[in-house]
Specification:
The protein is built from eleven helices and four strands; from the N terminus they run H-H-E-E-H-H-H-H-H-H-H-E-E-H-H. With 276 residues, it is mainly alpha-helical.
Length: 276
């Protein structure tokens, strides 16, 4: 190749690359409105974005992979934590952990009720942006400073072993991991490992005790009934002194009776009932 041919090749390659880049840029801008659900950007969402910047949340947290990694990524936070939980947490995060024990340093920002509501609206808008699967996994920060779950191949303490055949408990374990929001993003099945929700180790035993308690005001008459009630109507009965609720409303997300089929609910209930 002569010097003249090399120059022509370099110029042509640059021009083609520039054209491709321009086309891709224009195509991205064409899709931004649809991908970001621009029609859902309300004044409350905009105000929530201002709250996010005002309190420098990005100095510790991450959105869309941008920000600091000192604290959990919040891109999908409203899909893993309900509004009641987020509201109570923002009012006073110190109630959710012992700073001396757990070494978490989330400050109490003294946000107004409107700021909290608008910030949740903004985070909910963020959670519904089509971001191609980011983050790759749900946040699993626990109350004891470690992530929940067990290593592959291990049987959690207190769990009744199940076969992978047609046993609904085996299928329920899969529902536990794959439901949206994922049960495992808030609950551990290891004893003493409390996350955004309490450990589910010994769930069946506690359910039996609750039903027999004179304080119980729900509609369940069996362990399975109580567990199912806790899934589809988490605020039907609030355990006295429960730290996972506020003002009679459970922090547990609602809507599983719509996102899960009756069969999946039966399977999930059977699995949780096996946690003796």
């Amino acid at each position: 190749m002569t010097n003249r041919q090399a120059r022509i090749f370099a110029i042509a390659s640059t021009a083609v690359a520039a054209l491709i880049f321009l086309v891709l840029t224009l195509d991205s801008h064409r899709q931004f409105g649809e991908l970001t659900n621009a029609e859902n950007i309300t004044p409350e969402v905009t105000s929530g974005k201002d709250v996010w910047h005002k309190y420098n949340c990005i100095n510790c947290h991450t959105l869309f992979g941008e920000g600091a990694y000192y604290a959990p990524d919040l891109t999908k936070i409203t899909q893993h934590r309900g509004e009641a939980y987020l509201t109570a947490y923002m009012r006073d995060p110190s109630k959710f952990y012992d700073e001396q024990k757990h070494r978490r340093l989330m400050p109490t920002q003294d946000l107004s009720e409107k700021e909290i509501a608008d910030l949740i609206k903004f985070l909910d808008w963020v959670a519904n942006v089509d971001n191609q699967g980011w983050p790759p996994r749900p946040i699993t920060v626990t109350g004891s400073g470690v992530s929940g779950g067990v290593q592959a191949g291990q049987i959690p303490p207190g769990t009744t072993p199940v076969d992978a055949g047609d046993d609904p408990r085996a299928m329920g374990e899969e529902v536990f991991r794959t439901a949206q929001p994922s049960c495992s993003s808030c609950h551990s099945i290891e004893p003493g490992v409390n996350m955004a929700g309490p450990s589910l180790a010994g769930m069946a035993s506690r359910a039996a005790e609750t039903i027999d308690s004179p304080e119980y005001e729900g509609d369940a008459t069996s362990v399975e009934g109580y567990i199912r009630e806790s899934i589809v109507a988490p605020s039907a009965y609030i355990v006295p002194g429960d730290m996972y609720s506020s003002g009679g409303t459970s922090f547990m997300p609602t809507g599983y009776d719509e996102s899960l089929t009756e069969e999946e609910l039966d399977q999930l209930t059977a699995y949780l009932a096996s946690l003796k």
